[in-house]
Amino acid sequence: MNIKPLGDRVVIKMVETEETTKSGIILTGSAKEKPQVAQVVAVGPGKIKDGETIKMEVKVGDKVLTSKYAGTEVKMDGTEYTILSQDDILAIVE
């Protein structure tokens, strides 16, 4: 099943990373804060505001930093995605 976002919405998938504490304990995803780095899975066409088209600045495959509690989480085919506005993306990670 594919998700096709509308307007200036972006579908992202959080990037899970393991972290190791100074004492060598590995923290899994559930034991630490929500990650803010994600991979863009789908991008909407952009939106029209005051008669002007606002173009999308991200593309599929980009790694991005997002606001901590932005977007709506959805689960499809066993995978968790977040749908958020382009305005909630803070930066592209290169």
Spatial strand arrangement across the major sheet = 8-9-1-4-7-10
Q: How much β-strand is present in the residues?
A: over 45%
Please, what is the average pLDDT? 85
Compute the CA-based radius of gyration. Answer: 15 Å
In the predicted model, the low-confidence regions spanning at least 5 consecutive residues are: none
According to DSSP, the number of beta strands is 10
Structural class category: mainly beta
Topology:
Elements: E1 9-14, E2 19-20, E3 26-27, E4 37-43, E5 47-49, E6 52-54, E7 63-66, E8 72-76, E9 79-85, E10 89-93
Antiparallel strand pairs: 1-4, 1-9, 2-3, 4-7, 5-6, 7-10, 8-9
Describe this entry's structure for a reader.
Strand 5 and strand 6 (52-54) form a beta hairpin. 0% of the residues lie in helices and 47% in strands. The model has no long low-confidence stretch (mean pLDDT 85). 14% of the residues are buried. It has strands spanning 9-14, 19-20, 26-27, 37-43, 47-49, 52-54, 63-66, 72-76, 79-85, 89-93. It contains no helices and 10 strands. By secondary structure, the protein is mainly beta. The chain is elongated, with a radius of gyration of 15 Å.
